[in-house]
Amino acid sequence: MSADVAGLGKNLSPGQGIKVHQVSHIYGGGDRVVQALREVNLDIEVGSFVSLVGASGCGKTTLLDIMCGLTEGQQGTVTVGGLPPRAGRPDTARMFARDALLPWLTAEQNVDYALKTRIADAATRRRRIAALLAAVGLGDFAHAYPRQLSQGMRQRVALVRTFSLHSEFVFLDEPFGALDALTKITLQEELIRLWSETNSTVVLVTHDLSEAAALSDRVVVMSPRPGRIVADVKIDIPRPRRVKDLHSNPEFHEIVADLWARLE
Ligand SMILES: Nc1ncnc2c1ncn2[C@@H]1O[C@H](COP(=O)(O)OP(=O)(O)OP(=O)(O)O)[C@@H](O)[C@H]1O
């Protein structure tokens, strides 16, 4: 781990993470009003990994977008690292459901495209990108274009792009939705490793309760729209966790069953 990553988040106290207070959000106007969120309160500690789960359309993405400044909540207050959210803040990074790689750039160039907004020195960027691509098994594919990569490989590049920024706060929206089960588990393990090596605070939106339980310190369960928080479940499985092993762990299955029951 490089020295700049080791220091990440160290200037923030645990309580200076993400604070969401009484946030409500309505889309549209007139007779086409959709209340997406109602009086949501959430407190996320620095360095923790928290997942948001809930039925389709319950407002997970809306809440994530409000936390990272892409959508402005209409009521309530949000602070991230003690400051109001703003899109493009250098201490936050957002990864979307689809990998959204630029097809005319190679894997390395796709990562660099984001990283050069934060680091001017090309040699430093090249070193960081090469190390991260190698760490996720893409060392030989740095010069490949997205069309030459599988879906799982493209998602890996997108993960590298997100974590290469060394942002203190990382927001992930269904990053592994479209992957087969085995690739998904491999990428989940890579995500845990990137998170633990960067000391970042991660908020993950997912439909997959097993994924939420395997990766998170806490799983926040939302009600159907208008989204409210109906449960906040601490996942006490010790770390380091191996996602593959968890699938044969009865305690893990109990946690997932409990999450299902809360969702219903
Ligand atoms: N830009 C928008 N304009 C109008 N309505 C919207 C907009 N974005 C989201 N909505 C509505 O707000 C509600 C919450 O949407 P959101 O995408 O936050 O839910 P979600 O839980 O992330 O859904 P999914 O799990 O299906 O991705 C939905 O009913 C959706 O139709």
Cα distance spanning the termini:
42 Å
CATH H level of the largest domain: which superfamily? P-loop containing nucleotide triphosphate hydrolases
Numbering strands along the chain, what is their spatial order in the largest sheet?
Answer: 5-6-7-3-8-9
Bound molecules: adenosine-5'-triphosphate
The gyration radius over C-alpha positions equals: 18 Å
This entry's quaternary arrangement is: single chain
Number of discrete domains? 2
CATH architecture of the largest domain: 3-Layer(aba) Sandwich
Strand content range: 15-25%
H/E order of the elements?
A: HEEEHEEHHHEHEHEEHH
What structural class should be given to the helix and strand makeup? alpha/beta
- Return residue spans where pLDDT drops below 50 for at least 5 consecutive residues: 1-7
- Secondary structure: number of strands: 9
Protein name: ABC transporter ATP-binding protein
InterPro entries: AAA+_ATPase, ABC_transporter-like_ATP-bd, ABC_transporter-like_CS, ABC_transporter_ATP-bind, P-loop_NTPase
Domain ABC transporter: 18-249
Keywords: ATP-binding, Nucleotide-binding, Transport
Question: Which terms would index this structure?
Answer:
9 helices, 2 domains, alpha/beta, Rossmann fold, 3-stranded antiparallel sheet, AAA+_ATPase, nucleotide-binding, 264 residues, globular, disordered N terminus, 22% strand, ABC transporter ATP-binding protein, binds adenosine-5'-triphosphate
